Give the backbone structure.
Amino acid sequence: MSGLDIEYLFELAKRDPEELESWRLREIEKLINSAPETLRHRLRGLQFQIDCKRRLHPTPMGACIAISQMMMDSLLNLRLSITGEGISPLKPARAQVIPMGASRSQMSMSGHAP
């Protein structure tokens, strides 16, 4: 997307929104295809999430806010992973396992509701 002409895109949005959408999709596809093969599946998944956020909101501003929140959540999770404060996918959270055949009285004694 080198040489991005904002004025042209602004005019295109007013004059021909369908063409702007076609341009957007082409540029996204070019960007994903230019990424290393190992990242393409993840990028397509991320674009799917972004497209879903856009469809869910009735206004462009609502979609923008939702996508921005998605980015902020991702950055927070990255920060927590780097600092060791978050739950790492490599170190799952510990949980108490209750045997399938446990009776109600056994569960009550262990502090678990039936």
User: Anything to note?
Assistant: The first helix runs from residue 6 to 15. Residues 6-88 form one domain. The radius of gyration is 23 Å.
